[in-house]
Design a protein that fits this description.
Largest sheet: none
Strand content: under 5%
Structural class: mainly alpha
Number of domains: 1
Order of helices and strands: HHHHHHH
Number of strands: 0
Shape: elongated
Distance between the termini: 28 Å
């Protein structure tokens, strides 16, 4: 059950991140008038999809380096409940900022969620 919730929370995080970042890469195409809105969205979707497929092969090193090790105790890093709390926290933060028009970095939100969840779990030992 927890694994299914973690999968849904991760999908929500991916949706939130896409809603926040998808158009940024092609904003100059639309802003300059080089293409219309729908064409720019199509380009953004294609580029994002291609990037997500490539990340499967290229992001293993990055994933290893950004795993919360050293930020929180090691026994929390692989905990499904810890990961669920982090994913929900990041997803809600990013979607709230996106809906209200505030600029946000998903990476900074992720780091903040790791620190926040770690602080709640173990107190000031984080």
């Amino acid at each position: 059950m927890t694994l299914a919730l973690l999968f849904l929370a991760t999908c929500f995080l991916a949706y939130s991140n896409g809603a926040n970042d998808n158009f940024k890469g092609v904003a100059s195409l639309f802003g300059s008038g080089a293409c219309g809105y729908r064409t720019a969205i199509r380009w953004a979707t294609i580029a994002t999809f291609a990037g997500s497929i490539m990340s499967i092969f290229l992001a293993q090193t990055l994933l290893g380096k950004f795993s919360a090790k050293g930020i929180v105790p090691d026994h929390f890093v692989g905990s499904e409940y810890f990961l669920l709390a982090v994913a929900i926290g990041v997803g809600l933060t990013v979607i709230l900022a996106t809906l209200t028009g505030f600029p946000i970095s998903t990476t900074h939100a992720l780091t903040g969620a790791i620190f926040g969840c770690g602080f709640v779990a173990v107190g000031s030992q984080v």
